């Protein structure tokens, strides 16, 4: 029997605990890297000259990844709607949410690296906006229930009332 194909059973409490740990780890990584970059960078300034190609590349990459993250998230949530059990739906949600976070974290880290290279606070500001978006999409039981279109019974299971 192949044990690698089995879907792990997650109760809703463990699911939210794991998802919260992943969320805060990715958020903390950005915040710590950004704070460290700010602390060690000597020359700081806000410069939007187009001589620096990163002034165009970082925002375009950020916008592209934001759009891609939203599209991937919605497509994976649509797959979750076809699942029969709450556990399968939660696993799909976890995959969708992690993909969304990864597509946001990439440009954030890219912006911080661009700041390290140039000292241009514009790049750090873009990373800051991404962090604010991270905070806005923090997973909650209500958001999961709404995003997955769970029925009353499933919402009661994830809220812990059953």
Strand content: under 5%
How many separate domains make up the residues? Answer: 1
The strand count comes to: 0
Derived structural class: mainly alpha
Number of helices: 6
Mean pLDDT: 89
Overall geometry? elongated
| String of helices and strands | HHHHHH
Low-confidence spans: none
The radius of gyration computed from the alpha-carbon positions, rounded to a whole number of angstroms, is: 19 Å
Helical content band: over 70%
**Biggest β-sheet description:** none
Distance between the termini: 33 Å
Protein name: MFS transporter
Organism: Mucilaginibacter boryungensis
Keywords: Membrane, Transmembrane, Transmembrane helix
